[in-house]
Amino acid sequence: MASAALLIVLAPLVGFVVMLIMGRQVKEPTAGWIATTAVAVAFVASVVTFFALISRSQHEVTVNLFGWLDVGTLHVNAALLVDPLSMTMCLFVTGISALIHLYSIGYMHGERDFNKFFIYLNLFVFSMLVLVLANNLLLTFVGWEGVGVCSYWLVSYYFDKDSAASAGKKAFIYNRIGDVGLLIAMFLIFRTTGSLNYVAVFHHTGLFTSSVATITVLALLLAATGKSAQIPLFNWLPDAMEGPTPVSALIHAATMVTAGVYLLVRMSPVLALSSSGRMSIAVVGGVTAFVAATIATSQRDIKKVLAFSTVSQIGYMVMAVGAGAYAAAIFLMVCHAFYKALLFLGSGSVIHSLSGEQDIHLMGGLKKYLPLTFPTFLIGWLTISGVPPFAGFWSKADVLGSVYGFSKFLWVLGLITAVLTAYYMSRLFVVTFRGTERFREVTKGHDPHESPWIMTAPLVVLAALAVLGGVLDLPWIHHDSIAGFISGSVQPVAGVASISTSAQWVLAAVDLVAAVVGIAAAFTIWRQTSPWPSRYESSFLERVWLWDDAYDAVIGRPAEHAAAFTGEVIEPRVIDGAVIAVATSVRRSAEGTRKVQSGLLRQYALAIVMGMAVLVVYLLTRSW
Amino acid sequence: MSIPASWFLVVGALLFGIGAYGVLTRRSALIMFMCIELMLNAVNLTFVTYAHALRDIGGQAAVFFVLVVAAAEVTVGLGIVVSVFRRRNSTSVDELSEMKG
Amino acid sequence: MIAATYTIPDVLIFVSASALMLVGAVGVIAMKNPVHCALSLIMTFFGVALAFAVQQAHFLAAVEIIVYAGAIVVLFLFVIMFLGVDRSEDVNVEPIVGQRPLAALGVVITVAGLIAMLAHARWVTGAHSATTGGVPTKGGNANIKELGTSVFTTYLYAFEITAALLIIAVVGAVLLSRRDRLSRAEELQEENA
User: Fold this and answer.
1) CA A60, CA A63: separation in Å to the nearest integer?
2) B44 to chain C: which residues are within 8 Å by CB?
3) How far apart are alpha carbons A60 and A86 in whole angstroms?
């Protein structure tokens, strides 16, 4: 089992190294196949490890690779922690990554830097697996940074486009701000418990004072907001849509952005120590879900709608974590990975058929041209809107049910968000696939064509998973399902009221009503796309509640002014001035001293006599 | 032994001072030389005074040598003054200021 | 101060010697004409010789007159006449700023300091010197013999070196003051021209 676990992490790394070494010698599809095979091997290894884990009695295995740091009292090993939480993450990360790798071989066909894409993608998968499988915070941080860097590279994949380069930087910088939170949390945890190893830390949670625990939890929340794009660090995610669509699907929907939620769930024993921390987490999640959902209703770009949808759904997950419903959060994470990847890859298929057009104003009526993309996208749409029996319905009901017991206000917020979710997804679906055709200028009169099998096959697989994903946690098999599986890895929270089964069914029905309301509203408004019903769009919402502008005004401009001031005033006057002043003073003193050399003999003689006089006076005073 | 040595020493000091003032003040190279001879004589006077007071003939031997060296110095020095005069037609030392910084 | 046992003639001799010296010195620095300065210098030398003689340095007194007054000052006068610089120099103008006051200050401090130091050290202690220049001390009248013995025994090296120095000086003086010899060809050209 240890070797299988090691293989999970090693396979993508080997793929990365092999492709890096071979460089340009591999021709186009080969690099893609190498990468896909590497990730598929990792998936198989995950499955093997998973079965090996559940066949054991103890559900927690540490696979030690090598000793890494041994500094003073800090002992950190490079070791893998195989337990239900990490195996769940591994399974869906490797599985979806493999499908997306396969899809990318078709999508990135003809790109100039085909090999580079897969090199980065494999490195990303490796980093994500390190993040998930690490048994200590430091190794997790290594993976954390690794996925951040790969995200930066992949978002700026089209690096000669200014917007892409800026988006990459924005993503990385926002991530970095969140990383400060993770570092502070690590410092506090090490200081309190003397170790960074998860198992060791969780045994010593009694050493935390409540204020230290709260600060640690808030620091972890900051890290999660950076990585998982929550308020206040969420506006990098829409910009990150500059990257190619498979990147958006993999990194910014299914895997990297869930890393923040994973961290919080992993640190559940620490979270259990601070109820104010957990309330903050839940509020951040809820508010983010709501705000993002409102923004998504007015977006023009198909990928931006999905990006804000991601932010909103992760808001749900974070809210569930705050409410103590860790299993619900993980369940939603897995289902979300399925249907969001499906939606992104589907949108990629649409974009591909329209030669790169992403504006939904210029789509419409694509139903008859995309016979495979359309039904899979339809399934994705129904899932995310919360229509039973698809996976989205069950996961959303799980989350909202848990939140109802935690805070009624957040539950109402979550419900409104569910209505909005159904609304904006239906809007997207209707405008893109039904209605009149508005894309003729973009395709120059040609018909859009369906994507090749290499792109549609993953769509089909993901659609199937979206349909069947609900079985992971149906309410009546709660204890034998993923919830029961994961509960071994997380610390349950005391004092959270659980609701009765009948209440759960009522709430589920309410969720269904919300979904129907949203869908109906969208269908009524958006059936007619000419003229465009822009009454129902708002520029305030479209511009992300002016969030970017606010940051620009409060942080960006002052920083620019400070930089300009430093460059134009401080640098020439103070710094250069100091250096020049030194030189000038040396020169002046030299010029002054130069006057002593007058060349006049008598002045030199006078100097000698004066010296003699001084000497005489000195001797005189000394002898007295 | 009759005159106290201190009187001669004071005279010697005064002579030295006058000579020094002359070196600093006069511009002609020749006259500066003469003032230097004054200073040397003051020193000689001091030596002899001490030789007499301490009954040490070494003082007089020193004067002997100072005399010889002064003679040699004047010889060479005046040779230099003559050479310089040939070039510049003036013995003023203020004009020899080409070594100024 | 040693017990003063001086008589009137001694004081007179001292005063005249000092007067000669000091007046002559002031004359050297104050006269405008270089020839007058040289003559003042001779006066100074006579005063110095008198002081030497009073202090039982008879040989040195004689040598002082012969060498200094008789040779060195004559040499000075030769050069003055030869170069023709016996015209008066303007003593009133001092081109260098502050030279005179500063010179006066420096000199006054030095001299005063010297005298003060000597006074503080009680001039001469009166004890006889430990060294004798290599000569057994006598009453103090066989001056030439003592000096000669000392120079040719204790200070022999210095004597030889100063002799060499004199020769070098002579050679140097000759070199310094000769005009450049024209080459043989140029001389012929000059003659034919």
Assistant:
1) 10
2) 48, 52, 60, 64
3) 10
- Torsion angle of the four alpha carbons A466, A471, A473, A475, in this order, in degrees rounded to the nearest 10: 120
Nearest to A174 by CA among A545, A558, A547: A547
Q: pLDDT by residue (tens digit) across A345-356?
A: 999 888 888 878
Cis peptide before A531 (omega within 30 of 0): yes
* Domain-embedded: residue B15: yes
Which residues 78-137 on chain C approach chain A with CB closer than 8 angstroms?
A: 96, 99, 102-103, 105-107, 109-110, 113-114, 116-117, 120-121
Which residue in the set C34, C111, C132 is minimally distant from B28, CB to CB?
Answer: C34
**Cα separation of A344 and A255, whole Å?**
13
**Tell me: the pLDDT tens digits for A435-489?**
777 777 776 767 777 888 888 888 888 888 888 877 776 665 555 566 666 666 6
CA angle, residues A112, A114, A119, in degrees to nearest 5: 135
Domain assignment of residue B26, yes or no: yes
Length of chain C: 193
Q: Across the interface, which of C107, C114, C116 has its CB nearest the CB of A609?
A: C107
End-to-end, the C-alpha distance of chain B in Å comes to 54
Q: Tell me the residue range of the domain where B18 lies.
A: 5-87
Query: What share of residues in chain A are helix, strand, coil (percent, to 5)?
Result: 75, 5, 20
Nearest-by-Cβ selection for B97 from A594, A598, A605: A598
Q: Render C90-113 in DSSP notation, one character per residue.
A: --S---STTHHHHHHHHHHHHHHH
Instruction: Return the partners of chain C (3 or more C-beta pairs < 8 Å).
Output: A, B
Query: Phi and psi (nearest 5°) for B40?
Result: -65, -40
Q: Do B57 and C71 touch (CB under 8 A)?
A: no
pLDDT at residue C43 tops 90:
yes
Q: Write out the two tokens for B2.
A: 């009759």
Query: Are the CB atoms for C56 and B51 separated by under 8 Å?
Result: no
* Chain B residues within an 8 Å CB radius of A599: 96-101
Query: Cα–Cα distances in Å, from A321 out to A263, A363, A453, B99?
Result: 10, 38, 39, 89
User: Does a structural domain hold residue B49?
Assistant: yes
Buried b / exposed e over A39-53, threshold 16 CB at 10 Å, is: bbbbbbbbbbbbebb
Whether B94 maps to a domain, the answer reads no
Nearest Cβ partner of C56 from B11, B18, B52?
A: B52
Return the minimum-mean-pLDDT range out of A1-10, A488-497, B28-37, C142-151. Answer: A488-497
Residue in A596, A599, A606 closest to B24 by CB = A606
- CATH number of the domain within which B67 lies: 1.10.287.3510
| Number of domains comprising chain B | 1
| Residue of chain A with shortest Cα separation from C113 | A616
Interface of B with C in 36-55 (CB under 8 A): 37-38, 41, 44-45, 48-55
Q: Which helix (H) or strand (E) holds A175?
A: helix A162-193
Q: Which residues in chain A have their CB less than 8 angstroms from residue C99's CB?
A: 602-603, 606
- And the tokens for B57? 């003939």
Q: Is the dihedral of CA A27, A28, A29, A30 positive or negative?
A: positive
- pTM confidence score: 0.69
**Residue B100 near chain A (CB below 8 Å):** yes
- The encoded tokens of residue C6 equal 């001086």
Question: How close B21 comes to chain A (CA, Å)?
Answer: 9
